[in-house]
Amino acid sequence: MTLLSRAVLALVWLLHWLPLGVQAALGRGLGALFFRLAGSRRRIALRNLELCFPDKPAAERERIAREHFGWLGRSLIERGLLWYASPERLKRLIHVEGQVQLADESERPVMWLVPHFLALDVAGAATQLFQQRWVASIYQRQSNAVMDAAMRAGRLRFGRGEVFSRQESALPLVRAVKRGAAFFNLPDMDFGRREAVFVPFFGVPAATLTAPSKMARGLKMTVQPVVAEFLPGGAGYRVRFLPPFTDWPSDDAEADARRMNEWIESEVVRNPSQYLWVHKRFKTRPEGEPGLYTKR
């Protein structure tokens, strides 16, 4: 497994030298192969789309899923750009919009709220390339030690941030924010019932973290939504630093979770094929409800 992982990383490193348009074509091809062969992930994506867009015809949902796998393939192939390309090349490829320097200018600590679109690692690179504030983030530790080390090294290579494992206590992250770091927060995955409430996501009750609201309120943070996307072919990437929320967080963490999901819904409707549909967003169910991913 170690040798295979190192071989994969070597291939990713080699591919990053190719023009982005070539990498994009390879990624789309890889995604088409995944759609055919990765049956369990294909079923999860199609089920999520069925739950979130029940009024769309099945053929339309399948079209979105096929496009999604194409973007997913790109996200894997183009990971080498984010991990190995020069900062100058990345700055040419990443097109930032909006208040990218809000964290630099804010007197209060900033939380970037970054939903799981497939280009979210591009947003992570943008926060270190286009502004000066130290960046703190949380990541899911990988079971493969070689890939885990590569992921950490890739995300930290600009020397402007630190990452904390989700399996650790939140205290090191809180200390980093108090020292002046901005928090790159990925809030929209199903991590179980702990620190979560069930609020609608496209009308389906979804276990949604209350920690973003509670942390932002406790540390008096300014919350700025950030959304990243792939552009077609070799055009690069777009990262939108949106205006900060004016009335979030409130003193009601459950209401904040509901409003956060509503905002993410609006962004998914804007760009449905690039949202992370292969994640079991509705895996955790309210007491007494049956699972939503059982084979039918």
UniProtKB/TrEMBL annotation:
Keywords: Acyltransferase, Cell inner membrane, Cell membrane, Membrane, Transferase. InterPro entries: LipA_acyltrans (IPR004960). GO terms for molecular function: acyltransferase activity. Its main location: membrane. Pfam families: Lip_A_acyltrans. It is found in: Cell inner membrane. This is Lipid A biosynthesis acyltransferase. It comes from Rubrivivax benzoatilyticus.
